[in-house]
Amino acid sequence: MPPRKLVRYPNDVAVELPDHPGRVIARLARQVELAVTTVDLSLSQYRALSLLGEGKEAASALADKLAVSRPSVTGVIDGLVARGLVERHHVDGDRRRVGLDLTGDGRRLLAAADEEVERRLRDIAAYGPQPGFEGLGPWKEALDAYRTARRARAARTGAAGAAA
User: Is the pTM of this model over 0.70?
Assistant: First the structure.
């Protein structure tokens, strides 16, 4: 077995083994966070806008997709509504359910944030072997399938709990 190759960083970051993907992803997440701050968004706000960019969503479903509590997503959404980036509406047929949708300003800001994130990641990628973003496609598919499976398990557990 060949010896492990260590990666050393010039900015006093501790030595990192490349076989710890969580550490690399955590560092990339920080870079995404820094990129979205240039358009006056937090990482939580960017994540919420990204999901709403895929279509209207109920607040409870958005919390589930973001893997956060409903009160946490409410705080993020309140800030986005106050800035005119997201609008709340009652869901047809159930006035208790609140739906969320991006406004025109929200769509424009999301597009600007996406551009900044991609620019920053391309800048970083230029310093190493050229990793392709197309490699993220299978990860997106896996994340979507994982979320679907988690929801199905929760629905089965909820139905079983209700029957018991």
Answer: yes
Contacts of 120 (CB under 8 A, 6+ apart): 31, 32, 34, 35
Residue 116, H or E segment:
helix 104-125
Give the E-state strand segments of the chain in sequence order: 57-58, 86-91, 94-102
Q: Which CATH number fits domain 1-131: 3.10.28.20, 1.10.10.10, 2.60.120.1440, 1.25.40.10?
A: 1.10.10.10
pLDDT in tens, 67-101: 888 888 899 999 999 999 999 987 777 777 788 99
In the block, residue with structure tokens 């424009």: 108
Q: Where are the domains of the chain?
A: 1-131, 133-164
